[in-house]
Amino acid sequence: SRQWRGVLREYSDRLNISDATPIVTLGEGGTPLIPAPALSARTGADVHVKFEGMNPTGSFKDRGMTMAISKGVEHGAKAVICASTGNTSASAAAYATHAGIQAVVLVPEGKIAMGKLSQAIAHNAQLLQVQGNFDDCLDIARDLATNYPVHLVNSVNPDRIEGQKTAAFEVVEVLGDAPDIHIVPVGNAGNYTAYHRGYTEDLKAGNSTKLPRMFGFQAAGSAPIVLGHAVKDPDTIATAIRIGNPASWELALNARDDSDGWFGAIDDAKILEAHRILSAEVGIFVEPASAISVAGLLERAEAGAIPAGARVVLTVTGHGLKDPQWALRTADGSDVQPTVVPVDTPAIADLLGLRANA
Ligand code: F0G
Fold first, then answer.
1. Which residues does the UniProt record annotate as the domain Tryptophan synthase beta chain-like PALP (predicted)?
2. Mutate which of 91, 129, 152, 188 to test ligand 1's pocket (most atoms within 8 Å of Cβ)?
3. How does DSSP classify residue 318?
4. Which among 8, 232, 319, 341 would be 20 to 30 A from 357, CA to CA?
5. Do residues 130 and 137 make contact, with C-beta atoms less than 8 angstroms apart?
6. How far is CA 21 from CA 15, 60, 75, 80, 101, in A?
7. pTM of the model
8. Atom of ligand 1 nearest to the CA of 52
């Protein structure tokens, strides 16, 4: 038995790295692909969940960050910068500090989950809360990287998408082929693009027999790709994907057309309903943005767009512990109040409706 070595070492022959590349890794990748009978029963499809919350910093960003930081260090970077809705900043901070370089992260003020903010600070990033949204942060990060000696590690850096394509390789290895449909949440559309690239490379290499249809979902209040135009004031409780002008928009449209794919929009109420279904019926706890994959599956199934028995993989992108507050709200919006009991076994048994063994 051996330990998983991180995506650069596991897939060294399928990534643009050489002996000169210092490998900065926290053991990312190798995440579980979990069969989801409850979702299969609801949809008539054969549904599997790729749980990317199991990465070292709790999101899929680690796959691209190991690549971006390793290549950055190879080329002499002493500091990296990113704009982020939270997960990229957590990941950049962890990988940069592991490599012994500085991370600078720009986040929209008041619009990132507490867990992610804590991670960036814990990992010693210089964190700046910008009085604007993610799109403003990305504009500034690009400006700084162009004009100052800081290396950009947003997904406009092609190394990020390269690293992220490895998730598709893992799916093909586990299933023995590509799925029929692959569903992801969409913010900048980098991950959508990365899966399509990974599956395309697997098909060309003869590791699979088909290209999955790529389905991507945006929050209804921030759905520029669905609307066909940038959204100036994007809004959603799924703060990870609160993005009005996706960086990989063109690449994603190409991937959609090439895969006979689909982009849809889901409102916040449906995102939270799917969040409850995934945690209560499947046993996987994710942040709201990730639950949109489940909501998208249910919406497409209801629309009759998921053939019976189709093999469907949903990527859930970030761990629920990053933004746990949503589990403590009921469907009607009221707070969940955990029941308080005295130190009294019979009273607790009584409350639980238990009768003593005969
Ligand atoms: N899910 C989560 C949990 C995310 O954090 C993100 C993006 C996405 C989905 C969308 O992925 O941008 O490749 O389409 N988060 C970025 C960040 C923007 O800064 O952490 P995408």
1. 24-318
2. 188
3. B
4. 341
5. yes
6. 11, 22, 9, 17, 16
7. 0.97
8. 3
- Nearest residue (by CA) to ligand 1, atom 19, is 84
Distance between Cα 2 and ligand 1 center (Å): 31
ipTM of the complex: 0.99
Residue-wise pLDDT for 84-102, tens only, equals 999 999 999 999 999 999 9
Structural domains in the chain, CATH included, are: 7-58+160-328 (3.40.50.1100), 61-157 (3.40.50.1100)
Q: Quote the pLDDT of residue 203.
A: 98
Q: Answer whether 239 contacts ligand 1 (Cβ < 6 A).
A: no
DSSP string over 125-160: -EEEEESS-HHHHHHHHHHHHHHSS-EE-STTSHHH
Report whether pLDDT(1) > 70.
Answer: no
- The token pair that represents 207 in the structure block: 């590791």
DSSP state of 28: -
Distances (CA, A) of 122 to 57, 59, 114: 12, 16, 12
